[in-house]
Structure formats: C-alpha cells, structure tokens
Amino acid sequence: MIHLYYIEDDPNIALAVKEYLESKNFHVTVCTTLAEAKQRILDQVPSCILLDWNMPDGRGDGLCQWIRSKWKDLPVIFLTVRSDSSDIVSGFQSGADDYVTKPFSLEVLYSRLLAVLRRTGNAAEQYLSCGGIVIDRSRHAVLCHSEEISLSAAEYQLLLYLMQNKGKTLTRAKILEQLWDLNGSYVNDNTLTVTMKRLRDKLSQPACLKTVRSVGYRMEDTL
Prior knowledge:
Elements: E1 2-7, H1 11-23, E2 26-31, H2 34-43, E3 48-52, E4 54-55, E5 58-59, H3 60-70, E6 76-80, H4 85-93, E7 98-101, H5 106-120, H6 123-126, E8 127-130, E9 133-136, E10 141-144, E11 147-149, H7 153-164, E12 170-171, H8 172-179, H9 189-202, E13 209-212, E14 216-219
Parallel strand pairs: 1-2, 1-3, 3-6, 6-7
Antiparallel strand pairs: 4-5, 8-9, 9-10, 10-11, 12-14, 13-14
Helix pairs in contact: 7-9
C-alpha cells in the first residue's frame, strides 16, 4: 500500500481527497500545518507528498526545499489555487515533481500521482524510518532527527536489519546469524552487546529501540 501525506488545512478538501485515494488503495495521512508535516516526515518517510501552496504557518515551497535537503528522491506534488507562472516556477525551483491547480478532478489528481510514482519509484522503500531515525539505503546514510550520524559497518548493518523488521522482536541468535555467521565468520555474543551499546549511544538512546529482556531487540514506532 502506498502511504501518502496530504498537507492541507481545508478539512472539506482534505476529506474528499483522503476518501477518494483510500478507495484506490492509498493510505492517506492528513497534516493541517507545515510543522506537523515536518514532524511526521521525520518520524516516518511516506511514499509521496501532496502539498498545498498556502498553509497557516507558511508556504509549501519552503517545506519542499526542506524535504529536498534531506530526501532528494521523495516525490512532492503541489496543489495550488494559483495559476501565475512565477508561482509554478517557484514550486519547481524548490524541488517539486509536479503540480495540480485547484479546483481539480480527483481522477486527474490520481492519474498524476500514478505518473509521478512511476517516474520516482516508492520512496518509502528507499527510506526506512522509525522514531526520528531515517536510513537512506541508496546512500548508506543515517539521519537522527535531521542530523547525519556516522556508523561503523557493523552498526549500520545492525540498524538496517532492525529497521527492515520494524515491529518484530529479533532474537540475539537470529541477529548474530543474519549479520555475521552467514558471512562465514564466528562472532561471540559479546560483540552484539558492544555493537548495540555503541549504536544506541550514537543515536542518543532512542526510545524506539527496545530491549526485550532475555530474548533480543525490537524497533517500534513510538507515536
């Protein structure tokens, strides 16, 4: 299912778009301010963003520039009542992938969404996120609350494996088998303990990384 954030302060428009797209097998989260949208993106990167130009706490192009500074491949479509060419140019300069002018047909919006997703792919598969931690798999980069964190190869692989299995409890034996033993090298149990401690320290002791006593570890959303 494609998870989409719709940033719109008009409740009637937001409801109509949400109901229509969810009938097309999208999962739609509505954000009514730019600040709320920023926090949600930091917590979990969606597949796509629909962004209204005028919001109560600022203009959409500012948010788009912020998104592009961190997630260059996350598709953004502007929705605007403006038809002035300078505003459209400004939207594309900020990094938007497409725009739709209000009032719009829901069918047209849906087709434009599909076209953008075909071009850009599913960003949610490239960006794994949990509790403000984001992995950009294409760059092998890790962000923690917008700050890029330098991890060792073992720390990165441990975090990636936990994020890929978010919501599942992974035993220590399974983690060791997946990350080390399958590569033909024996690593004792203490190595996992040390690697986990260093990872937690670098990520400022994240609440989303849980220890399951006498079993193993689990990543889970904290919202």
